[in-house]
């Protein structure tokens, strides 16, 4: 990869920062294509002088992409949104934006295009996020036949918006939510050696398979370097599948706090999501609730991290290192 030019759209984001660091370590010249180059200037210190170059480009405006991809060996599209606001909607970003990048890459004669999608992308999903993710994949393939599709599960790492979010909530509230629990508790008799037990959580709620951001970045690098990866689809997940209950208990364990795990059924989440989505940068939307109704785990029918030569990093290895800041003073 030494001296390859790699253009990374959305390179100033969570995954992008880790990817840029790994690409420069491998000797690549990285163009970080973002709407505002000032957002990417802090990445210039990750390489030698001139090795990381911020570029002004907007995936919604195809005319701005030509200079960013000209002469590049590989292009990586990390751009995506979790909720819609203004022109930053699913149609514009996940489909039209993805098409614009693929067209520009094909016209420039780029060797490799890596398109980042998401686990759960499905035409039959009730979530518009998932629907537009799969539509984006298909649109990219129509413009760039050998595009490499990578679908991560929930991505975790020091700057993530998942574990950090709930660990932060635990500092200010006595409750943590458990998503997707039964609407009514279940009453079990003569089980587990006890005569009576109330089950609030059912099977533990929505399942997740968190993947370390460093593993995602390594997978992208491996995909760029491998001829056999062209045209393939990979789903990236960690070594362990956790239920919603497991996730919350894991967080509390590593921040040393005790909180009540509040079972929340989907009907209630839909109401909350519908209300919160009226505000910019919502913590939850109705569409995200529809995503939560489907387990976020890797399919057994596609290639995975192992097929790219990457060993999945366990959550327990990384999580304590960055959740330590949420512990009480002196603990």
Describe, in plain words, how this protein is organized in 3D:
With 331 residues, the chain is α/β, with parallel strands linked by helices. It folds into 2 domains: 5-156 and 210-237 and 297-312, Rossmann fold (3-Layer(aba) Sandwich); 163-206 and 242-292, no CATH class. Helix content is 33%, strand content 19%. The protein has 10 helices and 15 strands. The chain has helices at 14-25, 66-69, 90-107, 128-143, 163-169, 213-225, 244-255, 266-276, 286-292, 315-323, and strands spanning 5-9, 29-34, 52-56, 74-77, 112-116, 148-152, 155-156, 175-179, 186-191, 194-199, 207-208, 211-212, 233-236, 242-243, 260-264. Strands 3-2-1-4-5-6-13 form a 7-stranded parallel sheet, with helices on both faces. α4 (128-143) links the parallel β5 (112-116) and β6. α3 (90-107) packs parallel to α4 (128-143). The radius of gyration is 21 Å and the shape is globular. It starts with a strand and ends in an 8-residue tail after the last helix. The model has no long low-confidence stretch (mean pLDDT 92).
Quick structural summary:
The protein is α/β, with parallel strands linked by helices and 331 residues long.
Low-confidence stretches: none
CATH fold name of the largest domain: Rossmann fold
Biggest beta sheet summary: 7 strands, parallel
Please give the radius of gyration in angstroms: 21 Å
Provide the residue-averaged pLDDT.
92
User: At the first level of CATH, what is the class of the largest domain?
Assistant: Alpha Beta
Q: What is the CATH H-level superfamily of the largest domain?
A: NAD(P)-binding Rossmann-like Domain
Strand content: 15-25%
Give the number of DSSP strands: 15
CATH architecture field of the largest domain = 3-Layer(aba) Sandwich
Helix content: 25-40%
Shape: globular
Count of domains: 2
Question: Order of strands in the sheet with the most strands?
Answer: 3-2-1-4-5-6-13
What multimeric state do the chains show? single chain
Number of helices, counting only DSSP H or I runs of 4 residues or more: 10
Helix vs. strand class: alpha/beta
- The helix/strand series, from N terminus to C terminus, equals EHEEHEHEHEEHEEEEEHEEHEHHH
Distance between the termini: 45 Å
């Amino acid at each position: 990869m030494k001296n390859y030019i790699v253009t990374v759209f959305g390179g100033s984001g969570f995954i992008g920062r880790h990817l840029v660091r790994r690409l420069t370590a491998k000797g690549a010249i990285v163009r970080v294509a973002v709407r505002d180059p000032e957002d990417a200037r802090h990445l210039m210190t990750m390489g030698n002088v001139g090795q990381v170059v911020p570029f002004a480009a907007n995936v919604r405006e195809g005319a701005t992409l030509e200079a960013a991809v000209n002469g590049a060996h590989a292009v990586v599209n990390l751009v995506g949104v979790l909720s819609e606001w203004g022109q930053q909607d699913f149609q514009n970003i996940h489909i039209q934006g993805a098409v614009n990048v693929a067209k520009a890459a094909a016209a420039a004669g780029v060797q490799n295009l890596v398109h980042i999608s998401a686990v759960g992308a499905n035409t039959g999903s009730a979530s518009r996020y998932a629907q537009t993710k799969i539509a984006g994949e298909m649109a990219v393939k129509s413009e760039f036949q050998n595009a490499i599709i990578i679908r991560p599960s929930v991505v975790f790492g020091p700057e993530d918006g998942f574990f950090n979010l709930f660990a932060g909530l635990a500092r200010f509230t006595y409750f943590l939510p458990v998503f997707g629990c039964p609407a009514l508790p279940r009453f079990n008799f003569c089980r587990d050696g006890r005569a009576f037990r109330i089950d609030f959580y059912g099977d533990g709620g929505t399942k997740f398979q968190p993947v370390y951001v460093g593993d995602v970045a390594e997978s992208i690098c491996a995909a760029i370097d491998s001829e056999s990866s062209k045209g393939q689809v990979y789903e990236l997940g960690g070594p362990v599948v956790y239920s919603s209950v497991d996730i919350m208990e894991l967080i509390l364990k590593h921040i040393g706090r005790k909180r009540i795990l509040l079972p929340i059924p989907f009907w209630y989440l839909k109401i909350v999501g519908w209300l919160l989505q009226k505000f910019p940068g919502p913590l939850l939307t109705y569409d995200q609730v529809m995503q939560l109704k489907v387990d976020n785990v890797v399919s057994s029918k596609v290639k995975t991290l192992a097929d790219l030569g990457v060993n999945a990093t366990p959550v327990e290895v990384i999580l304590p290192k960055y959740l330590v800041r949420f512990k009480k003073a002196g603990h």
